[in-house]
Design goal:
This protein is α/β, with parallel strands linked by helices. It is built from 9 helices and 10 strands. Strands 2-3-5-4-7-8-9-10 form an 8-stranded mixed beta sheet, with helices on both faces. A two-stranded parallel ribbon has the order 1-6. Helix 3 packs across helix 4. The protein is globular.
């Protein structure tokens, strides 16, 4: 009887560890989706942008008014370009040209893994080059949320952007994982953190430190606006403030009262549009040149 209980306990422990080891694979597994066509009231041009490793970045291009600037929109984890659609609509109405993309492993852009900004940064680089060739006389900006924000900061090329908006961006991957473990398992979730980080490093074949936006934020040589929420448990206010402190000037910080880790445009509405347009207008628009 005693040996039977021990046997069952050992089996339970092995199953538990097997599940834990599978989490790393689950977290990095791609999230492909078919992106539906838009309605006639918001016409877009479907584009395919060559990136590295034979990856083709799928996106929508919306031309604006000459001289008003062009903006790249990069979505969050396990989402696609549709997440950024409401931003694209309001930016187009303000005159900006807009490019919405699916990051690799998301939407219609093929990818073997989600890499927390590592490979996604290559998609950002290719998309910025595409915008620069498509609109050679425009100043270029970018808005990224969560994963999209990390991809912008982790880009190895000098993107030479004129303005950047980073929403709900974590300073380190360790903090991002730890916060999510605590949300699911309470304070005891941190016990699993070393195992999770080891799995992710093994799965991605890279040191976790290479995926920390705060280590590269001072290389983002562009005016930057940080946006985060007071009630965001995935990326806390203090974490955003650390990123802000590490960034180069000119820089701005907007902490949205009551906002959590979700679509800031949906939550803050008109206030979001006002602040974002005010920031982008200062650095992108040059109608007087036309």
């Amino acid at each position: 009887m005693h040996s039977n209980i021990i046997f069952k306990l050992v089996i339970a422990i092995l199953i538990a560890f097997s599940l834990l080891f599978a989490i790393g694979t689950i977290l990095t597994s791609p999230a492909p989706t078919t992106v539906s066509a838009l309605s006639a009231d918001f016409p877009v041009e479907s584009v395919q942008i060559p990136s590295r490793d034979n990856v083709i970045v799928h996106g929508w291009l919306v031309p604006g008014i000459p001289g008003e600037g062009a903006v790249l929109l990069a979505h969050s984890m396990r989402s696609n370009r549709v997440e950024m659609l409401s931003r694209a609509r309001f930016l187009r109405d303000k005159g900006y040209s807009v490019l919405l993309i699916d990051l690799q492993g998301h939407g219609e852009t093929v990818g073997d893994k989600i890499t927390f900004g590592l490979k996604e940064a290559e998609n950002i680089e290719a998309s910025v080059d595409f915008l620069r060739k498509s609109f050679p006389n425009e100043r270029i900006g970018a808005i990224g949320t969560s994963l999209g924000a990390a991809a912008i900061v982790l880009a190895k090329q000098n993107l030479k952007l004129n303005a950047v908006i980073l929403e709900s961006l974590h300073p380190t991957l360790e903090e991002a994982v730890d916060n999510r473990l605590k949300l699911h398992f309470g304070d005891y979730g941190s016990i699993l953190l070393p195992l999770m980080l080891w799995q992710l490093s093994l799965n991605l074949d890279i040191a976790i430190a290479e995926l920390n936006p705060i280590a590269r934020i001072d290389r983002l040589n562009a005016p930057v606006l940080f946006i985060s929420g007071t009630h965001d448990a995935h990326t806390t206010q203090s974490e955003t403030e650390r990123l802000y402190a590490s960034a180069r000037a000119p820089k701005e910080l907007w902490i949205v009262p009551g906002a959590k880790h979700f679509n800031m445009h949906t939550y803050a509405g008109r206030e979001y549009e006002h602040r974002v347009d005010e920031f982008l207008s200062e650095y992108l628009k040059r109608s007087e040149d036309y």
